[in-house]
User: Fold this.
Amino acid sequence: MIAGACAILPVLAMDGTAEAQRAQAPVYVQQGVASWYGPGFHGRRTASGERFNQHDLTAAHKKLPLGTRVVVTNLRNGKSVEVEINDRGPYVRGRILDLSRAAAEQIDMKKSGVTPVRLEINEDNWRLSDRDS
Assistant:
């Protein structure tokens, strides 16, 4: 693979059916830098209207529909976590995602503060929200 290129490749299903292959293929992939946020925002309202809980597995993204479930993989160590997009951000140039404290701990990035990540969304986890219209 050419460095910097991004491709969505389907995962081959064990049974070989096209339907099974489509069900496993991500419909959205994004790579970039993630950071985390927590104590200073705990209890504040998020863009979804719920209160931010730094102990929940959630994240902020600028454009993905609120309620979408995203698998976030730390590209430094291969650890992954599934989070729900419930807020908007990050508002720091060059970052694509702000994870809750709990999500950052799951992928061992809390100490570093930022890390390169890959976001993946499968068709079943894509959410079209009235809130984002």
Remarks:
- The two ends are 36 Å apart (CA to CA).
- Strands lie at 26-37, 58-60, 69-74, 80-87, 95-100, 114-122.
